Amino acid sequence: MHNAIELKNIVKRFGKVVANDGINLEINYGEILCLLGENGSGKTTLMNMLSGIYQPDEGEILKKGEQISIRSPRDAYSYGIGMIHQHYHLVDVFTAAQNIILGLEKEKMDIAAVNDKVLEICNKYGFDIDPKKKVYDMSVSQKQTIEIVKQLYRGAEILILDEPTAVLTPQETDKLFKVLRNMKKDGKAIILITHKLAEVMDVSDKVAILRKGKYVGTVNTNETNPQGLTDMMVGHAVSLNIDRPVYENPTDKLVVKDLTVIDSDGIARLDHVTFTAKTGEILGVAGIAGSGQKELLESITGLQHVSEGTIQFINPDGKGIELVGKTPIQISKIGVGMGFVPEDRLGMGLVGSMGMTYNMMLRSWKNGKGIFFKKKEPEEQANKVWKNLEVVTPSIDFPVRKMSGGNIQKVLVGREIASRPPVLLTAYAVRGLDINTSYAIYNLLTREKMNGSAVMYVGEELDVLLELCDRILVLCGGKVSGIVDARNTTKEEIGFMMTTVGGLKGGNS
Amino acid sequence: MNALVLLFAAAGAYGTALMFGTLGEILTEKSGNMNLGVEGIMYMGGIFGLLAPNIYETAVGAGNANHFVAILLAMLSAFAIGGLAGALFSFITVTMRANQNVTGLAMTTFGTGVAKFAGELRRLKVGGYVTLSNDLKFAFDNHFMPQFLKDIPVIGKIFFDQNEFFYMGIILAILMHLFLTKTKTGLYLRAVGESPVTADAAGINITRYKYVATIIGGGISALGGMVYTMTTAGCVWIEASISGTGWLAVALVIFCTWRPLNSIWSSILFGGLMIMYLRIIVPFFPMELYKILPYVVTIVVLVITSMRNIKDKQPPASLGLNYFREDR
Question: Cβ of A92 and B328 within 8 Å?
Answer without folding.
Answer: no
